[in-house]
Amino acid sequence: MEILAFGVQADEKPLLEEAFRAEGHHGVRCLDVFLNQDTAPIAAGYEAVSTSVNCELGGPVLQTLTTGGTQLVAQRSTGFNNIDLQVAERLGMTVARVSYYSPYSVAEFAWTLAMAVNRRIVRASNRTRDFDFRLDGLMGRDMHGRTAGILGTGKIGEAFTRIAHGFGMDLLGWDAVENPACVELGMRYVSKERLLAESDLVSLHVPLLPETQHLIDAAALRTMKDDAVLVNSSRGGLIDSRALVAELRAGRFTGVGLDVYEAEAGLFFLDKSLEVVDDDTLARLVTFPNVVVTSHQAYYTVDAVGQIIAATVDNVLDYLAGRRSENVLAPAPART
């Protein structure tokens, strides 16, 4: 069987092809375009498709896939907020994701963003390219002895916490369930409001769910310290981007590092350098000197991508063998 993979990056393609080739009986056709209503007809005749987090799998797209014969969607990510699981189940489709990959890839990148904005790395690099070696405007702060607030203390949040502990920071956490490993490192679990009010660095590591949409809204942003650092390497919808722009225009925050953006679909992973981007909020965000925006690359290490691809291959093989793993999202597990 041949699998059709949408939204495949150039670095990812040879790894994906080799992984399926190693199975001997299955091939993969890699496309750099993302799955959406316009591209869904391409999948006609393919029983299995693989998708990335910026593909659109709402009801109309899933209906088009089913009409064309697709029965399996193997998503190459942990997040699945782009998939209408209720429609998929109604259509009798199997949907699987990657429930685990290296948490260090995202945690380390979140810290890269934090230090980049704290120590003005982008501004300094741009200056030295012009042989401007002044230090004016480049003063940062020690992280040692300051307070890190981690919203979401699962595997990635725990990895971020361990790095913060290595810096010698005080640790505040917020989550529905306390992580014993984080508590052992000295983390104190507090309310979201207290965490935001007391933290010098706030990093987001929670999934995007209806109840976490705009978790960091205008009120939350106003609760934070004026000189705080805010990092989001999880999902763009966790932050109200317009509210963030308003706070930045008021001169608040030492720095903001964003690897995700709530309206990134149709922008991130694509070359828009020769086009007019009509997203005024994003256009304003990238102009602030204390903001660094990257294109959803936190997960993008050879280690994490290798694990994602291996899990995707396993998901396809499990589907063909009639096996069910923890990666399956639809059909939903039976209630007991």
Automatic annotation (TrEMBL):
<keyword id="KW-0520">NAD</keyword>
<feature type="domain" description="D-isomer specific 2-hydroxyacid dehydrogenase NAD-binding">
    <location>
        <begin position="112"/>
        <end position="298"/>
    </location>
</feature>
<dbReference type="Pfam" id="PF02826">
    <property type="entry name" value="2-Hacid_dh_C"/>
</dbReference>
<protein>
    <submittedName>
        <fullName>Hydroxyacid dehydrogenase</fullName>
    </submittedName>
</protein>
<keyword id="KW-0560">Oxidoreductase</keyword>
<dbReference type="Pfam" id="PF00389">
    <property type="entry name" value="2-Hacid_dh"/>
</dbReference>
<dbReference type="InterPro" id="IPR029752">
    <property type="entry name" value="D-isomer_DH_CS1"/>
</dbReference>
<dbReference type="InterPro" id="IPR006140">
    <property type="entry name" value="D-isomer_DH_NAD-bd"/>
</dbReference>
<dbReference type="InterPro" id="IPR006139">
    <property type="entry name" value="D-isomer_2_OHA_DH_cat_dom"/>
</dbReference>
<dbReference type="InterPro" id="IPR036291">
    <property type="entry name" value="NAD(P)-bd_dom_sf"/>
</dbReference>
<dbReference type="GO" id="GO:0051287">
    <property type="term" value="F:NAD binding"/>
</dbReference>
<dbReference type="InterPro" id="IPR029753">
    <property type="entry name" value="D-isomer_DH_CS"/>
</dbReference>
<dbReference type="GO" id="GO:0008720">
    <property type="term" value="F:D-lactate dehydrogenase (NAD+) activity"/>
</dbReference>
<dbReference type="InterPro" id="IPR058205">
    <property type="entry name" value="D-LDH-like"/>
</dbReference>
<comment type="similarity">
    <text>Belongs to the D-isomer specific 2-hydroxyacid dehydrogenase family.</text>
</comment>
<feature type="domain" description="D-isomer specific 2-hydroxyacid dehydrogenase catalytic">
    <location>
        <begin position="8"/>
        <end position="329"/>
    </location>
</feature>
